Amino acid sequence: MTISIVVGGSGFLGHAVAEHFAGRGDTVIVTGRDKAGAEAAAARIGAGARGLAVDLSEPESIEAAFAGVESVDNLVLTASDPTPVTLDGFDTTQAIKAITIKLVGYAETVRVLSPRFTPAAAVVLFGGLAKERPYPGSTMVTTFNGGISGLIKTLAREIAPHRVNAIHPGIVGDSPKWAPVPVEQQPGALRTPIGRLVTRSEVVGAVDFLLTNGGVNAVDLTLDGGFLITN
Questions:
Q1: Which residues partner with 76 through β-bridges?
Q2: Bridge partners, 138 (sequence order)
Q3: What are phi and psi of 199, to 5 degrees?
Q4: Closest to 11 in 3D by CA, of 75, 80, 73
Q5: DSSP states along 21-87
Q6: CA 161: distance to chain centroid?
Q7: At what angle do helices 12-23 and 200-212 cross, to 10 degrees?
């Protein structure tokens, strides 16, 4: 029995990863900030999935939240709070929450669960393209996604031989926000060498690659269709 945990599995990309795991027969644990949301996400995924309330903005609660998890084969962390924050009218409360979720919360989750990793267990952390291409309001998003690059390196040393990698998707073309929008109006779509944005299934496939290829460790994988090589 393969046990796969998706932290933030009630969200768009996390949910897609969890669906993939469940579809191949894994026992899947999806987390959300509250019990109702996590259980609703698990119900949408179907048999083999269960929801668990884990709030990464309160790192001191993470250990107790995962107390019932006995072993882990795959750990994917997608949770994020991308609320826009700029220096003009800087909201320190929101900024601290965003950083806590993405960096402190991710690190604490790995610390708590790593003693329960099976021998081949691996970890994937979600960052994002804002690490390289800031946008208006991305002050904290760009900062914590940059921090993910450092976090995978130290975690890969700390929990060796278990592998830790990061994926940094660009805008996902079949997301609820962009799927209804004609491709010529999707930001950057026609500027990518592939002539479109990346898809949800491509993100899921990349996560699967990072989890299963034993030679890939402490790597930042950018998934943007080549957008970063354009002007």
A1: 6, 124
A2: 85
A3: -115, 165
A4: 80
A5: HHHTT-EEEEEESSHHHHHHHHHHH-TTEEEEE--TTSGGGHHHHTTT---EEEEEE-------B-S
A6: 21
A7: 60
d(CA 95, CA 65): 24
For position 58, what pLDDT does the model report? Answer: 98
Mean pLDDT in the chain? 95
Closest alpha carbon to 167 in 2, 6, 1: 6
If DSSP codes are grouped into helix, strand and coil, which group holds residue 12? helix
Positive or negative CA dihedral for 146, 167, 121, 64?
A: positive
Q: How high is the pLDDT of residue 183?
A: 84
Q: Could you tell me if 6 and 76 are in contact, meaning their C-beta atoms sit under 8 angstroms apart?
A: yes
Q: Any idea what the Cα angle at residue 147 is, between residues 222 and 53, rounded to 5°?
A: 90
Q: How far is C-alpha 84 from the chain's CA centre? A: 18
Note the pLDDT tens digit of each residue in 64-94: 999 999 999 999 999 999 999 999 989 999 9
In terms of residues, how long is the chain? Answer: 231
Query: Distance between CA atoms of 80 and 97, rounded to whole angstroms?
Result: 10
The 10s digit of each residue's pLDDT in 143-179 is 999 999 999 999 999 999 999 999 999 999 998 888 8
How high is the pLDDT of residue 163?
A: 98
Q: pLDDT per residue over 193-211, tens digit each?
A: 999 999 999 999 999 999 9
CA distance 75 to 83: 25
Q: Which residues contact 95 (CB under 8 A, 6 or more apart)?
A: 85, 139, 140
pLDDT over 80 at 36, yes or no = yes
